[in-house]
TrEMBL record, chains A, B:
Protein name, as recorded: tRNA (cytidine/uridine-2'-O-)-methyltransferase TrmJ
Gene expressing this chain: trmJ
Known role: Catalyzes the formation of 2'O-methylated cytidine (Cm32) or 2'O-methylated uridine (Um32) at position 32 in tRNA.
Compartment(s): Cytoplasm
Organism whose genome encodes this protein: Salinicola rhizosphaerae
InterPro entries: Alpha/beta_knot_MTases (IPR029028), RNA_MeTrfase_TrmJ/LasT (IPR004384), SpoU_MeTrfase (IPR001537), tRNA_m1G_MTases_N (IPR029026)
Domain of life: Bacteria
Family: Belongs to the class IV-like SAM-binding methyltransferase superfamily. RNA methyltransferase TrmH family.
The reaction(s) this protein catalyses: cytidine(32) in tRNA + S-adenosyl-L-methionine = 2'-O-methylcytidine(32) in tRNA + S-adenosyl-L-homocysteine + H(+); uridine(32) in tRNA + S-adenosyl-L-methionine = 2'-O-methyluridine(32) in tRNA + S-adenosyl-L-homocysteine + H(+)
Span of domain tRNA/rRNA methyltransferase SpoU type: 5-155
Amino acid sequence: MLDRIRIVLVQTFHPGNIGASARAMKTMGLSDLVLVNPRQFPDEEATRLAAGATDVIDGCRVVESLSDAIADCVQVIGASARLRSLPLPCYHGVEPMIEASWPRLADGPVAMVFGRERYGLTNEEIGHCTHQLNIPANPDYGILNLSQAVQIVAYEAFKRHTREASDAASRTSRAGEAYPNIEQLAHFHDHLHRALTSAGFLNQPHAKTEAHLKALFARAEPSRKELSILRGVLNALERSDPT
Amino acid sequence: MLDRIRIVLVQTFHPGNIGASARAMKTMGLSDLVLVNPRQFPDEEATRLAAGATDVIDGCRVVESLSDAIADCVQVIGASARLRSLPLPCYHGVEPMIEASWPRLADGPVAMVFGRERYGLTNEEIGHCTHQLNIPANPDYGILNLSQAVQIVAYEAFKRHTREASDAASRTSRAGEAYPNIEQLAHFHDHLHRALTSAGFLNQPHAKTEAHLKALFARAEPSRKELSILRGVLNALERSDPT
């Protein structure tokens, strides 16, 4: 399961942080690293700080855009020091995030997305995510180094992985349902946009109607079957007369 | 309480690790740092990697021997990658260590002692400790970077410190949103039924389309605002031409 947790680093500035992140991953059993448009890579500093994890560095994918990094993922969690005003569901704490995401690993990769050292992730990049993660920290100075944030996530994942016994989940189980991947969700979002537009809903941009509905559907975590039902509803919506 | 957790670094080789450890501490509310005979300190690299935690660097004590670092402590826990043959009690995992030590903070400082990057702590130094700590990690490569080990310890300490307030949450938070009552939800279900009927969706009872959608919306736990958006979508659906 640990090999299904994907660490995605977006436009990392310091190659040393890439190496340190690779080491943080490997010590906790993770191996799937994807770099989106790193400033400087490959690099000596990355190799040096990777220490015994050069295989993670050597095996990592380097892509141009965040979409390329996450298309096959069933969940995409954006780590963010500051909460956005976007109505995206947010995990407060790494442990609850790992606990909630763990069952999803059965269906496909779950991506943890980390942004630039100084600027984090853009709103557009957060828009590619299904959830946000906030790591509670010192309110006077809560800015973790990038590779340290990766270490904490990897550490909690390893802890969960080795925890014996009962899946004493407070969540109801939805066994037997396959989840859509990010690409299928992206198609759904496009369809939602077209249907809302043709039904005349998006004429008041300040209302954030589309963002609210996207967040609602993200929370619902539709299975593939439910997604196809929703797309049937959207088709019907497209045939309606606008207000 | 967090200021009573003392981080002791013994003969650290890379000044960068000192700086990164200071940052790891401050982001999690710790402040008491003691350096035993560091190879190179003060140093630019330490200051650079401390980032916003230069106050921790500036305020740290530098001593000649481990005894000087821990004399006033009520518990001294030596972090060790490998277990020694010494009959010293050992915590397997950071969380149980924090849990067990927490009550001792009322009596005085508790020290976490970390050794050299390459060689860890000597048997003589472990002899100064009351306990050992082993951080469970990848059996194929479990050697965490020094400052990463400090980060994990500090992170678990901060979690413990803030646990009273928070907790209960494997659920995402949605503070500040009013939820519909049962009557409003019943109206929504009636409206859903009418809209799906008029759009021609309910002609195949075996498909359980309505049941699937009701379950999906139940999971999403729409707020009142979201419910009104959904009802707007249902209104538009009612104006559509059935298939």
